[in-house]
TrEMBL record:
This is Phosphomannomutase/phosphoglucomutase. Coiled coil: none annotated. Pfam families: PGM_PMM_I (PF02878), PGM_PMM_II (PF02879), PGM_PMM_III (PF02880), PGM_PMM_IV (PF00408). Residues 6-121, 159-258, 267-372 form the Alpha-D-phosphohexomutase alpha/beta/alpha domain. Gene3D superfamilies: Alpha-D-Glucose-1,6-Bisphosphate, subunit A, domain 3 (3.40.120.10), Alpha-D-phosphohexomutase, C-terminal domain (3.30.310.50).
Length: 457
């Protein structure tokens, strides 16, 4: 068993199986999670990776060894686990490594009501207690005073699907042709259940559950992983395409031309729909979403609130403000009606409803939400992140009309452009996002920042 400190991340647990994460560690985490939360029952779900069943079973042994019961939801997406935690009022554990390669696995933990457990909200305590349990002579079984907990299998897929369909009305939608690429991930399990009975002609791509990912990585943020979907949308004359990551909590949209739709445009579209139902509500967006997002929120009577990148920040700010919706540049979408948790499938239903209730193609419908030219995220390998950031700050901070903030990395804004430069927490990288009034200006700003970043790397 490897070092627990290596696999416990800011938001979840993730590592190579079995070298970094094995059944003994999973059992210890189950016991520690139960102790730290004082849980009497925990709901557990897992993805399609070959290691997920034994790891989730080991975690369940750790829970029951501490006298708590386990509701075993079996195969599920991460948002199905959030549904389970929210609807049952139980803390939960999802076994998945999301879009990571097949040799990885991990856990996403939450309190009852799908409240996230991260480094600032209990994950460190779970890590430290799990390390103590592993170091003890008897291992995870030690300390399990009282009766052994029980494991009860419960199929929650139908309830999850019905809950999502109840949140978005497609009764007036015209019939739509939709291609969905599940990437051999959990979308192949959940998407058919959710779309069943809706006015959708579904063309499935890679719906076979296979944690070795034989066709392509289940990561829609990488353009190469969208090629098959884009081709299928054009070949089928489909109205749109949807791509899900491995645990199906993220959804990427392709329009009828086979072109990628910016998650910022999807955020704006869903925000407008939610504000129509909840006038004057707050909507969260992270600082890398397009400037069009807060503009459109305000134009529709909403209150835009800007946050750092990362689901723990989004969820905390949504809970603090009572926000109705939140969106990120990474295609994570969060809903107050879904326990402030993220659901790519729920965002997809909103896109389908918006498209189906009118006659225009998706590209035209979303045109009003795409106002600026964006670079997308560009990574640069650097030997000294702090020094490179300082060079960029010095180069841009004093310019006339420029403003600087450091909410998350370095954001510099001019009259008709802005960029954000953030360090990676796990790699020697700086991540640049640039946006401007047009492609030419965006390219000028982008190239100038990159030249400074890479000047001494």
């Amino acid at each position: 068993m490897g070092d627990l400190a290596k696999i416990f991340k800011a938001y979840d647990i993730r590592g190579v199986v079995p070298g970094e994460l094995d059944e003994a560690a999973a059992e210890a985490v189950g016991a520690a999670f139960t102790e730290v939360l004082g849980a009497t029952a925990v709901v557990v779900a897992h993805d399609m990776r070959p290691s997920s069943v034994p790891l989730s079973a080991a975690f369940a042994r750790g829970v029951t060894g501490r006298g708590a019961d386990v509701v075993d939801a079996g195969l599920g997406s991460t948002d199905l686990l959030y549904y389970a935690s929210g609807s049952l009022g139980l803390p939960g554990a999802m076994f998945t490594a999301s879009h990571n390669p097949a040799r990885y696995n991990g856990m996403k933990l939450c309190r009852a009501g799908a409240v996230p457990v991260g480094a600032d909200t209990g994950l460190i305590e779970v890590r430290d207690r799990a390390a103590e349990i592993l170091a003890s002579a008897a291992g995870p079984a030690a300390g399990g005073a009282g009766a052994q907990g029980k494991v009860a299998r419960r199929d929650l897929l139908a309830g999850y699907a019905a809950h999502l369909r109840g949140l978005v009305d497609l009764s007036d939608s015209r019939p739509l042709k939709v291609v969905v690429d599940a990437g051999n991930g959990m979308g192949g399990h959940t998407v058919p259940a959710v779309l069943d009975g809706l006015p959708v002609e579904l063309t499935p791509l890679y719906f076979e559950l296979d944690g070795t990912f034989p066709n392509h990585e289940a990561n829609p943020l990488e353009p190469d992983n969208l090629r098959d979907l884009q081709k299928a949308v054009l070949d089928k004359g489909a109205d749109l395409g949807l791509a899900f990551d491995g645990d199906a909590d993220r959804c990427w949209v392709i329009d009828e031309r086979g072109e990628s739709v910016s998650p910022s445009a999807v955020t704006a579209l869903v925000a407008v729909r939610e504000l129509a139902r909840h006038p004057g509500a707050t909507v969260i967006h992270n600082l890398i979403t397009s400037k069009a997002v807060p503009e459109i929120i305000a134009e529709h009577g909403g209150v835009p609130v800007r946050t750092r990148v990362g689901h723990s920040y989004i969820k905390a700010e949504m809970a603090r403000t009572g926000a109705v919706f939140g969106g990120e540049h990474s295609a994570h979408y969060y809903f107050r009606d879904f326990w402030y948790a993220d659901s790519g499938m729920l965002a997809a239903l909103h896109v389908l409803a918006a498209l189906g209730e009118q006659r225009r193609p998706l590209s035209e419908l979303l045109g009003r939400y795409s106002r600026y030219a964006a670079s997308g995220e560009i990574n640069s390998t650097v030997s000294d992140q702090a020094a490179a950031m300082a060079r960029v700050r010095a180069a841009f901070a004093g310019r006339e009309g420029a403003s600087v903030d450091e909410l998350d990395g370095l954001t510099v804004s001019g009259p008709d452009w802005w960029f954000n430069l953030r360090p990676s927490n796990t790699e020697p990288l700086l991540r640049l996002n640039t946006e401007a009034a047009d492609d030419q200006l965006m390219a000028v700003v982008r190239d100038e920042v990159l030249a400074v970043v890479r000047s001494a790397s």
